[in-house]
Design a protein that fits this description.
The chain has 3 helices and 13 strands, in the order H-H-E-E-H-E-E-E-E-E-E-E-E-E-E-E. It is mainly beta. The longest helix has 9 residues. The termini are far apart.
């Protein structure tokens, strides 16, 4: 949303922005998933698009977003830090989140983690937009997140999560129920090297205590080459692109690769 970005762009490093694409207006966005629906239900439903949820509690039309709105919410103190990091190695996403507390968390506090693509372009439709930022791809382990348990004041707790990206890329025709991405067997990631992780603490009243995001490191080679010097191609079924892992070979070895379709 242009209005929203004109405001938050003045405050770099002070906010996290994650986009859930939706099934309406018809035909909806191809990158809509069941987890987008789960989050909508969590917030008691989204009735209009675009919609912006501030700190998980206030639902506004971003066309009405103001600098004073940002500053009002930014002034609310937070007593927690959330520091996510991670990497993409082949089709394996590994994420670490360190949560530090100045006040104890509650037994009901949840850590919500999402993998997003920083910019997508293949889901362009007919509303004039040509690219989309921070598009949610998968929530880890799911849209409900993970209970943190009580983290005592002054303590830090580390959470390790992972996701194996399934199958191959598919661009659905639309966001209608019969066509949406099956998160168990396929994915809608356009570029594996353009992923980021979002992490936030959320209370039972839906308030967000703290959030943060980080780029995911894209691993381009295997640091432990196999003894028989295999050349590995993955994913094994693809309609768009695939990766060749040639890390078993040194840069001076002659190597010829023939690829036949």
């Amino acid at each position: 949303n242009e209005r929203l970005h004109s405001v938050v762009g003045q405050y770099p490093g002070l906010y996290s922005e994650l986009t859930y694409h939706f099934y309406f207006p018809t035909p909806g966005d191809p990158y809509y998933t069941s987890e987008c629906a789960d989050r909508s239900n969590y917030y008691n439903g989204i009735n209009s698009i675009p919609a912006t949820l501030l700190d998980g509690q206030i639902n506004i039309n971003p066309n009405n977003y103001l600098e004073s709105t940002f500053e009002e919410w930014q002034r609310i103190p937070s007593f927690y830090t959330v520091n996510p990091s991670g990497k993409v190695d082949g089709n394996k996403v590994s994420i670490t989140v360190d949560v530090s507390a100045l006040l104890p968390t509650k037994a009901t506090t949840r850590l919500i983690v999402a993998v997003a693509e920083k910019l997508t372009v293949k889901n362009v439709k007919n509303n004039g937009e040509t690219e989309f930022p921070h598009v949610m791809k998968k929530m880890i382990p799911n849209a409900s997140g993970t209970l943190t348990g009580i983290i005592q004041a002054g303590a830090t707790k580390t959470f390790n999560l992972s996701w194996t990206i399934p199958g191959s890329y598919r661009l659905p025709l639309d966001a209608q129920a019969a066509n949406i991405i099956n998160l168990a067997t396929e994915h809608s990631i356009e570029e594996f090297d353009d992923l980021e992780v979002f992490a936030w603490l959320q209370e039972s009243d839906k308030s967000v205590l703290q959030s943060n995001s980080a780029d995911l490191e894209f691993v381009v080679a295997n640091s432990n080459p196999v003894a028989n010097k295999q050349l590995v191609a993955y994913p094994t079924q693809t309609s768009d692109y695939f990766f060749l892992d040639m890390s078993a070979f040194s840069s001076t070895e002659p190597l010829r690769v023939l690829i036949a379709d």
